[in-house]
Amino acid sequence: MSSLAPWLAGPFKVRAEAPYRPGDCLRHPLVLLMLALWLLNDHVFKAMFGNAFTGKLSDIAGLVVFPLIFVGAYEMLCALRRIQPKHARTILWAGLGLSAALMIGINLFDVCAQACRIGLGLMQWPFRSLWALSILPVNQVSLTMDPSDLWTLPALLIPYALNDFRLNAALKAQEKELN
Fold this sequence. Notes:
single chain; mainly alpha; 68% helix
């Protein structure tokens, strides 16, 4: 084990019986599968097929992964500060709410969709410029407003269930350790 690993573990001791490590919610096989599917779909399948199915597939994958990014980041920051992540459920609820609000906003309101196009373009700009080894103009990303995408919002139950199961298992392990 490297000398860096225990430092990153923070308050969570590196041991076999530890219920979870910071950011484990992002390493769940289903989340990794959804992340890979999201990337493949947006960069390969949409170019090949470009139909309603590929659009919904991206929405579902994004709704599974996006809220858990906040939980994972919170847990890792807590580990770096060596404090217990006491508000993981609150962070999850905030991530779920933000995900739902973004999905509703970009599919129903032109202002939100345009802000998303520009914002994502700004986030991609440094990477595109580095790849091209020159300063490129900021491009807006392609975004299709589709109110029927709101039918994918129940996919938010997946990250809720995954994280809730994980946190409940950790809580039971802590209670068992105290007894």
